């Protein structure tokens, strides 16, 4: 059974940094691209970033480009999202999802809440 | 970037009704269109991928159609557990984008 468990969400001040993690199990992690998708409170879904199985290719939404960095450690079956220069508008539940998204994301984590506020 | 527009934004219906939700892309996305269901406090659930393919384990009352720029999600006979918010998502090109959502409520 595929399991994705996010962690690292917290309350952080504007301009601060945070690193999210996603621990994967139940599939061959290195064989799959992975993605981050977020949802601001009471709002819709927004794709944030994606990474290839090898980690050699990364993709970002314009809203986070230059501030967020996606990475993975295939030896630890883990996905990461380093978030710098955080803004109030980055406040959201962040989900990790298995796959690139081309055929949809069939597996999601439970989400981790990031709140950016002074 | 590709913009996705869903209609309606909200919808009231009764158990047993047939319901259709529409999603329009700002440019052709071929058949790279996926549909999700989300309930409060939960992660989205994939229902339909590639416009019309039913995700494993999803009831057959859900169906999708369309290609190019216009797509529909149809629920043939609403069940109590179907009241939720539905999103379309284009996967033709990054940045992948979602529609704004359709909230399906009990009449």
Q: What is the gist of this entry?
A:
Chain A has no helices and 10 strands. Chain A is mainly beta. The relative contact order of chain B is 0.34.
Task: Summarize the structure in words.
The complex is a heterodimer of chains A (118) and B (107). Chain A has 118 residues and is mainly beta. Helices cover 0% and strands 47% of the residues of chain A. Chain A has strands at 3-7, 11-12, 18-25, 34-39, 45-51, 58-60, 68-73, 78-83, 92-98, 112-116. In chain A, the strands form two sheets. Chain A has a six-stranded mixed β-sheet, with no helix packed on it. Chain A has a four-stranded antiparallel β-sheet with strand order 1-3-8-7, with no helix packed on it. Chain A starts with a strand and ends with a strand. By secondary structure, chain B is mainly β. Helix content of chain B is 0%, strand content 50%. Chain B has strands spanning 4-7, 10-13, 19-25, 33-38, 45-49, 53-54, 62-67, 70-75, 85-90, 97-98, 102-106. In chain B, a hairpin with a 6-residue loop joins strand 9 and strand 10 (97-98). The model of chain B has no long low-confidence stretch (mean pLDDT 97). Chain A binds chain B through residues 44-47, 50, 59-62, 95, 101-106, 108-111, and chain B through 1, 32, 34, 36, 38, 43-46, 48-50, 53, 55-56, 87, 89, 91, 94-101.
How do the helices and strands line up, and which of them pair or pack?
The complex is a heterodimer of chains A (118) and B (107).
Chain A: E1 3-7, E2 11-12, E3 18-25, E4 34-39, E5 45-51, E6 58-60, E7 68-73, E8 78-83, E9 92-98, E10 112-116
Parallel strand pairs in A: 2-10
Antiparallel strand pairs in A: 1-3, 3-8, 4-5, 4-9, 5-6, 7-8, 9-10
Chain B: E1 4-7, E2 10-13, E3 19-25, E4 33-38, E5 45-49, E6 53-54, E7 62-67, E8 70-75, E9 85-90, E10 97-98, E11 102-106
